[in-house]
């Protein structure tokens, strides 16, 4: 792990895009309730275009490549793309719903040297999982695929997005992952659609339910530690940036658009018009993203959670200001610790102009603080 | 001394970053970092170039005595082979294929 930290630090100092996430298509064979994508094909990169992009990314220093979608396996050339990526010695990870993976595909992925496969599982119950994916039989097929992949010795990570309809199933999905000898990751983040439509946010679990999730040891580990009061931001934290988006990683859409991250739809350029490295190095948008430090954030720099918050700049951008708070992260920080965030206070003040501000008592507090 | 050929193992991901080679094994979270001279050998470990030629190239590129270069290169290659990162062969890549196919 120390070497990985050193590698990231080196990539950062050299301006190397160490990781890239490439969605090869937005088409999908599932229609998940919470999906943020428009599944129509609006002119995907062709096979030669993707090959050329992979060569450019390898030359730019990208080592970790995530191929995703949409459902990447709906592309007929997906194994050619993976093979080319492996020839160019990328570390390849695949994100998929796995319903098109059978024994033969699992063997091919193993033979190609794919490092790991992340698979979405929403519930251990077919009626819940299949209702979310709107594909009858999808859980059965996905679980069969996981068994094929594991039988080849491939690493599988089950990604469990928690939302209203599967809220109660997190622990059981985790248990299922254990049975399948797969890793498990939980994510309660529902993001607005890339076109700005926020209607999917209705699926987000509410604060009280989120509090329950955050106090489930099976899901978060040591609850006391996870929900500990925040440490104030020190000088190092003030000079820090929130994540690798635009610093050591980026996202490329099936149409060749480059963004800082899949969750940060700030267009920085298109590989159909410019070289990948030129966009990475010279895009004004990318450079703006990488110039921002915690101390530059008018609200978050004053927040008690500044040193520990997992603020997503992409979610903040989707709310209208990449230098502003992300309300989803404010909510998480509050629900974890019971301490209001600066973003929440600012919102409260804006909502009550001219009134005496009454700071609401926290809904709950793990440590009894505040 | 018999001729040896070294080849990078197939299931690896690697990239040259800032003068060092970073190597990662698929399915294993272990990372390896090679310095400049080790990277020099790594880049030439194509399964076709004899180790002897790689050592000669090191002597041309760096100020090092041939015996020292050979000893260090052999030690390095053995170490990486022991970790499954390099494969040592007594014939060059393609030679076996040619034999199988009956080509000269």
Core attributes:
heterodimer, A: 370 residues, alpha/beta, nine-stranded mixed sheet, disordered C terminus, B: 104 residues, three-stranded antiparallel sheet, globular
What do you see in this structure?
- The complex is a heterodimer of chains A (370) and B (104).
- Chain A has 16 helices and nine strands.
- Chain A has a nine-stranded mixed beta sheet, covered by helices on one side.
- In chain A, helix 3 links the parallel strand 2 and strand 3 (91-96).
- With 370 residues, chain A is α/β, with parallel strands linked by helices.
- The model of chain A is unreliable at 356-370 (pLDDT under 50).
- Chain A has helices at residues 2-14, 47-60, 78-87, 103-111, 126-133, 138-151, 170-179, 207-214, 217-220, 223-226, 235-238, 276-282, 284-291, 313-318, 327-337, 342-351; strands at residues 19-23, 64-68, 91-96, 116-120, 155-161, 183-187, 249-252, 257-259, 269-270.
- Chain A starts with a helix and ends in a 19-residue tail after the last helix.
- By secondary structure, chain B is an alpha+beta fold.
- Chain B has a domain at 5-9 and 37-93.
- In chain B, 41% of the residues lie in helices and 28% in strands.
- Chain B contains four helices and six strands; from the N terminus they run E-E-E-E-H-E-H-H-E-H.
- Chain B has helices at residues 36-44, 51-61, 66-82, 95-100, and strands at 5-8, 12-17, 20-25, 31-34, 46-50, 86-89.
- In chain B, the strands form two sheets. Chain B has a three-stranded antiparallel beta sheet with strand order 5-1-6. Chain B has a three-stranded antiparallel beta sheet with strand order 2-3-4.
- In chain B, 23% of the residues are buried.
- Chain A binds chain B through residues 3-4, 6-7, 10-11, 14, 16, 18, 58, 61-64, 89-92, 113-116, 153-155, and chain B through 10-18, 20, 22, 24, 26-27, 31-33.
């Amino acid at each position: 792990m120390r070497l990985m930290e050193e590698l990231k630090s080196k990539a950062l100092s050299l301006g190397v895009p160490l990781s890239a996430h490439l969605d090869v298509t937005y088409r999908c064979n599932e229609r998940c309730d919470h999906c943020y994508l428009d599944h129509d094909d609006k002119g995907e990169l062709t096979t030669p275009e993707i090959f050329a992009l992979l060569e450019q990314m390898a030359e730019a220093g990208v080592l970790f490549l995530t191929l995703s979608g949409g459902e990447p396996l709906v592309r007929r050339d997906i194994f050619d793309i993976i093979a080319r990526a492996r020839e160019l010695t990328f570390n390849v990870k695949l994100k998929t719903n796995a319903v098109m993976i059978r024994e033969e595909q699992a063997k091919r992925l193993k033979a190609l040297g794919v490092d790991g496969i992340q698979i979405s599982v929403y519930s251990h119950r077919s009626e819940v999982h299949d209702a979310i994916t709107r594909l009858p039989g999808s859980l059965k097929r996905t679980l069969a695929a996981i068994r094929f992949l594991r039988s080849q010795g491939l690493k599988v990570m089950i990604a469990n997005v928690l939302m209203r309809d599967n809220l109660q199933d997190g622990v059981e999905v985790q248990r299922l992952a254990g049975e399948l000898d797969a890793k498990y990751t939980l994510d309660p983040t529902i993001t607005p659609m890339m076109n700005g439509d926020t209607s999917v946010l209705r699926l987000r679990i509410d604060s009280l339910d989120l509090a329950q999730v955050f106090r489930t040891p099976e899901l978060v580990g040591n609850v006391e530690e996870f929900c500990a009061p925040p440490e104030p931001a020190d000088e190092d934290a003030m000079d820090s940036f929130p994540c690798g988006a635009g610093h050591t990683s980026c996202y490329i859409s099936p149409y060749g658009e480059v963004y800082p991250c899949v969750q940060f739809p700030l267009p920085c350029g298109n590989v159909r018009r410019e070289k990948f490295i030129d966009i990475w190095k010279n895009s004004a948008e990318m450079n703006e993203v990488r110039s921002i430090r915690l101390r530059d954030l008018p609200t978050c720099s004053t927040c008690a959670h500044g040193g520990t918050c997992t603020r997503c700049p992409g979610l903040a951008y989707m709310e209208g200001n990449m230098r502003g708070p992300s309300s989803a992260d404010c909510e998480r920080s509050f629900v974890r610790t019971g301490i209001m965030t600066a973003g929440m206070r600012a919102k409260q003040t804006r909502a009550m102009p001219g009134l005496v501000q009454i700071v609401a008592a926290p809904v709950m507090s793990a440590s009894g603080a505040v | 001394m018999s001729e040896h050929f070294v080849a990078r193992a197939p299931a690896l991901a690697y990239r040259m970053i800032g003068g060092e080679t970073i190597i990662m094994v698929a399915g294993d979270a272990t990372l390896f970092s090679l310095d400049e001279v080790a990277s020099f050998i790594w880049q030439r470990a194509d399964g076709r170039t004899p180790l002897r030629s790689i050592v000669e190239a090191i002597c041309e590129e760096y100020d090092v005595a041939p015996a020292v270069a050979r000893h260090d290169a052999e030690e390095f290659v053995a170490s990486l082979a022991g970790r499954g990162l390099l494969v040592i062969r007594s014939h060059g890549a393609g030679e076996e294929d040619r034999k199988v196919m009956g080509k000269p």
